[in-house]
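Input record (Table S2, row 470):
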Amino acid sequence: MSIVEAEFLQRENPRTGTFKAPPFLPRIGHKSLGLERLGGERYLSRQFMQAEWEHIWTKTWQLVARIDDFDEPGAFHVHELGKESFIFVKGEDNEIRGFYNVCQHRGNRLCSVESGILDQFTCPFHGWQWHTDGSLKHVAAPEFFRQFDEGVPAAELALPPVKVDIWGGWLFFNMDLNACPLREYLGEIGTHLETYEFEQWQLIDYQTFEWDGNWKHAVDAFNESYHFAALHPDMVQFGEGHDIPIELWGIHSRMLNWNRTVSEVVEDRETLTELRQHMMGTRLQQDGAQHDCAAKDVHLAEIKRRRAMEDDTYLPFAQMNDEQLVHQYHYTFFPNTTFTQTPEGGAVFRYRPHASDPGKCYYDFFIVARLAPDASPPKRPLHRVHRHLPGDNYSEVFEGTFEPVFANVLAQDGSNMPTMQAGVASDSFKGMILSEQEVRLRHFHKTVDDFIAGRTDTHNLPSWDHYMDE
Ligand code: FES
Ligand SMILES: [Fe+2]
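Output record (fe (ii) ion complex):
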């Protein structure tokens, strides 16, 4: 048991006896997933990439955008995934639908703009048009087509649809029209996050990083905190990522990162240094709180303060367990979406494969917040794609929307992508040795293998407690 844990144990809601999101403490053990090394081939091989496409990307639920982006009929959003591009658009009937972004004449990309509002989609090549519900609107000079002598086959020429669904104010999609419903896919663990009331959150920023590493290196990097002490020395000054609780829930998983404490790997855990003040203190003072305690204990005092004000705040403290009030609840939904947040804000990560190169990926970074009811709505972010440059600290990426200390942390993660991609390709590499603190990686890669082998699909998901100790 870690030091933080010994100081802080709470499992039941004093009012109801249960929580929508069960606390991590006391810890639940998981069944052994083995000790084998994880080979490098899966990050490098085009065959493996193709198998992922056939069994994972075309079969699983994936996050698209906030539904607030679709504020009126005709509002659309283009989303790229691997070799495919999709159009998501609100129809005249206010229904949001999704289609492959492919002209049915000669296969041109129909829409090249990322988002906007349109009455119809017009292919720039020969001018064929589609309505916002995907039905065919216009074929230019149909008399030139002998195939259409009997009339234009509108149903055959409609844009091919994908399945869409909404959860927590987010639009999701699935290329598999027969996939299970989204809510069923998110499972028991989806219920936990409903305590945050995501449908009332706002999008503060949205940026994409193009990284020179396979998409699974990015998933791996954000699914463990074992690397904090070495790669992110700042992080251990105001949070704890050492020996953290981890839980495996069916095909998904979660972990807890403690905020507003000092890691037990740091010698002086008492002094409120300038960095600690800045990262733990500023916000508290803004809120009118002053905690006169050791730096490592700020979280405990803040939990008490927040619990005492649960009836007087717009934040949903009353339905949250004590851990949630202050700490980082970090959830990853298979295959490529992570939600990590406190009651007032957080980030959503989405990892996307490159169209053809297993050595590249896109890491999408959404900043979201629960703003006060009287706050003015944030301005719509300007989405850009950033290349990682050596020595970059991502200070140019965020324009006041993200704490620079955290932007630098993100750049440190980005710096590992090309070096991981290169290292696992070495003839000398014998495979990864994964610790218990990296068990989410073992579980994630096992899930990848289970989908590829056909042992798992959306109609044959492992139960939520499949990996838990009895
Ligand atoms: S390719 Fe689109 S109209 Fe011809
Ligand atoms: Fe990191």
